[in-house]
Amino acid sequence: MIGPLHHVGISTPDIDRAVEFYTTLFGFDIASEGGWEPGNELRDRQIKAVGSAARAAMLVRDGMRLELRQYTHPTGRPKSVDAPAVDHGINHFCFSVDDVRTEYSRLLAAGVDFDCEPLEVSSGVFLTYGRDPDGNVFELLSGL
User: Quick one: which H or E segment has residue 120?
Assistant: First the structure.
């Protein structure tokens, strides 16, 4: 039997920037940090690469986990920071918030980019899509 979602993994070109973004603006704590150097055959098999190396951090908050990885070898291809949410693949992850408008204003003031202002999608249900520094889309949702 498959259990609940354990974590969301995000590849980033700058792990320090990503950790700062999610700890400062979203209240995550660093649960662990690590990574591996070239020559780790198990990790090479895991990610289908030869000579792989990475830095990693597991962030936690209220039972949620985000695993951030910066691959130093091989380096990943950059994603367009304004790729539309309709592109194939995982297109966003969602945070429940008490008030979308309040969080939108707070994050906007901190320089976070958003695809739209908070929208009322049904009676009392509000959402907005924002972007982390690497262009990954997050949703803020309230009213459910």
Answer: strand 119-122
